[in-house]
Amino acid sequence: MRFITLAHRWMGVVLCLFFSAWFVSGAVLIYHPFPSLSQADRLSRSSDVDFQKIVIPPYEAIKSIENLELDRLRLIDLEGQPIYVLHSLASGIRVVSANDGKLVNLLHKKSAGRIAENFSSNPALSVEGPLDYDQWIVPNRYDPYRPFYRVSIQDEKKTVLYVSAQTGEVLQKTESNERAWNYIGAVVHWVYPTILRSNWALWDRVVWWLSLACVATTLIGLLLGIMRSRGVRDEKGISSPFKGWLRVHHILGLFAGVIVLTWIFSGWLSMDHGRIFSKPNPDASQIKNYRALSLEQAVKPVSLEALKVLRNYVELEFVSVGGQIFILSSNGKGLNLFKPTYTNSFSQYKFTESEIINAVQKAWPGAGIEATQRPTETDAYGKLREGSLPQNTLRVILDDSSQTWVHIDMDSGQIVSIMDRTRRVYRWLFNGLHSLDFPGLVNHRPLWDILILLLLGLGFLFSLTGVVVGLKRLTNK
Predict the structure, then answer these.
(1) What is the domain partition of the chain in residue ranges?
(2) Residue 14 falls in which region: left (phi positive, over 0), alpha (psi -120 to 50) or beta
């Protein structure tokens, strides 16, 4: 008992600072999420591809790079010139000119500045870089596009744009107000300082163990609080053997301890990353079997004549599903799906459920198809506060030991997520407990806002008493 008490005391001295910061930053994060540039906004501001300038068909672009295990193939514009962007599974991005088939070198500062000015319709004040990391481009999704140029724009919002030196795409946009709030929001809440987050493996281990230590400290404190309140009752009916701030910490902990434990535990689960629960993404073999045809093989029949039929698109992506080639085109107004025809052209197309089911069966050959569903707006697993499924999603329910659900975006034909039994449990333990994402509550605002802010406030007050007790312990002579 003495060891447990000492462990809680001295771990709490340090960790209550994190507790207090997490409750405050969590409230900020609700209304000021981490800055991001939406796909729709990015595409609406990008330049159309000039298809008349395409000389090299996609198959030749792929063949120009030896020993490339291709994951994605896109066609976009780079300062008036069409380029192929080849996404490799192992070696990042390669950019090939669609005009001469040569590799495109990294952008220069002047080019990045011009791209940012065209994107924002405002002059650039400065161009910095190229740089690999910055506070607002630390997430892993930016890894293939590094390094970046950081371009400050002359406007009222003090906008900063991040231009990939690899592809020339503007992939992040921040404003002064967003940056200020997120330094006390996301950066604190996710333990996201650039120096730590730029090393994902290190950040993952540090935050996982830190969160686990916080879970242990809270659990021990809750158990000690209950034990210390037994058999002790004053004239007010309050059970506590302590005085002063320690008494406040003890009594408040009897009520707020469960709330704190719930939030710290669910926050720790956000760092699971496959340690206990399954991951929501398909593995490389499942993707390969779902496609049933490599991109190199798939684009062979795509001719220049067929490509030049297309007009008014800022991005094309070549995808294979179930052994067939399709083209996804984006123009800022929406996504269109095309299928090659025998007349060197494309026709608009929509995936059928049978096509998708056949592709899923190839990716999970040992499992049968039990049923299919179309998640509705009230679907507890598809419509979440964070990470909802696309509107036009097909859920394929497999008859396997893990009771797997495979979610497919019917507009693009791509696998959106995989939810087996453990992943559905994770949905309630993380999304439910951490952000009160429960049906009947999360969409009823401001009721949800009032409740979550009250609980965050209670957690903060309790954590603050821990900070005071810890400081008094440290300064006690």
Answers:
(1) 2-32+197-275+445-475, 355-419
(2) alpha
